[in-house]
Each structure stands twice: as C-alpha cells, then as structure tokens.
Amino acid sequence: MSKIITMFNLKGGTGKSTTTLFCSYILSESKKVLLIDLDASTSLTSFLINDSDDVENKTILEGLIGKEEPEDITVTIKNNLDFIPATETLSDQDTYKNDFPVLNLHNMLKKIKEKYDYIILDCPPHKLLETKQALAVSNIVISPTKLAKWDIRGLGSVNKLIYEENVQSQQLTNTTLEQHYILPTMVEKNTTLHQTYLQSLEEAYPGKLLPCINKKVEVDKLITFGNIDHIKSTETYKEYKAIMNKILISVPA
Predict the structure, then answer these.
(1) Hey, what's the torsion of the CAs at 210, 142, 81, 78, to 10 degrees?
(2) pTM (2 decimals)?
C-alpha cells in the first residue's frame, strides 16, 4: 500500500517545493513515486514541464473535479517518477461545488494509489481547499521551516491545523497520520541565532525535528538553471538522502 507524504507550511519561501523535488527524486531511485503539484503558483510544474501548453486542460484541477482520469493527466518525468502538473487555474477549484470537496483528492487517488509506493504532495502555503484535501489523505507531513522568529511561531498554527482541524477529514478518508516532521531549511550552521532557534524547536517539538538542510548557492542555481538530472550531483542531495532514510526507518512499513 502506498504512503502519502505531504509538504506543508503556512509560511511561504521555506524551501517546500525544493524539498518536494529532492525527496521525490531520492525515493524514485528505488521506489515508484507519483509527485503532485497542488500549488497554483506552479513552482514544481515550471521546473519539470518546459512548455505549459503541453499540459493545458490536463492538470490536477481536471483530476480533482472528475473531468479527466488521473492516468490522462500524468506525465512521466523519469524512470519511477510520474508527475501531475498544476496551472494557476487550480485556484478555481472552489467554483466546482459538490457535497464533500475535501474528498476530491482522496477519490481521485483511489483510482491509482496501487500503482505507486509513494505519493508526494506539494501544498500551497495557505489554508486552502487543496491543503485540506492533501492533509486529509496524508500519512506523513513534512514542514520545511526557516529558522526565523515568525516562521517558528507559525508552526503552532500548522500543528493546530494538522492535529485538530484535520481530524474529521482523516476520518472521512480512513487515513492515519503517522508522523509530522519539522525540517529546518536554509540553515547557516555557524550562526549562533540559528543554533538557538534549533534548540527551541527541539524543546517545543520533541521527536519531530529532522536534521538540517544547510543553505547553499548550488540549490538556487539548480532551481533556476538546472534540471532534475542535476540533483544527484549536489551536496544537498546527500543531506536529503539522510533525511529520507531517517523517515523511512522511523515510520512503520
């Protein structure tokens, strides 16, 4: 049975899409992975799809509203890695009303889940319908987080949404949330302030804090100029590899 991993934070600019990209690539080295862009800002789609015309009317929106079958909106990126893209039209999902819109993603994924070992969801940094749909089906949630005052304060709202507001939705989808992880990103390890923030996170969220992703220029260059095949040649790849190994060991099969 596939596991669903969701990348989510209510703050933008935390490295959420970058984390999604690296983790999906690493998992696809040995497992069958489906990556889904659930963010109307389309960061992942812009990186993975050269021409948006190629996916016009063949996006996650069409899958969610039942206009297209999931197989017909899925793009193969490389061996073991498939992708469902998004466009800015995803924000129109609210205009397609039904009785339980929070179940749209759940109902779509039921048709294809057995094909994949992991499904990775990249959420918008807002409490939108797409976010609620993703959390409703999530087994694991990872919150990439910058080590800054307001980012850390915002984790309280993230925690409340995951563990309080999301409970009823997970009951509807018969899904068990196994773990919520906090992933410090863009860390300057020799900065005293960052070390202080790390200590406060460890105290506030025991057992949830993952090893840090250090700030590197190579990641900015990769996202701006690179392609997915360049991921493995980066130092950051090694950091994410260690993180994914930790998650997979600690989460029951």
Answers:
(1) -60
(2) 0.94
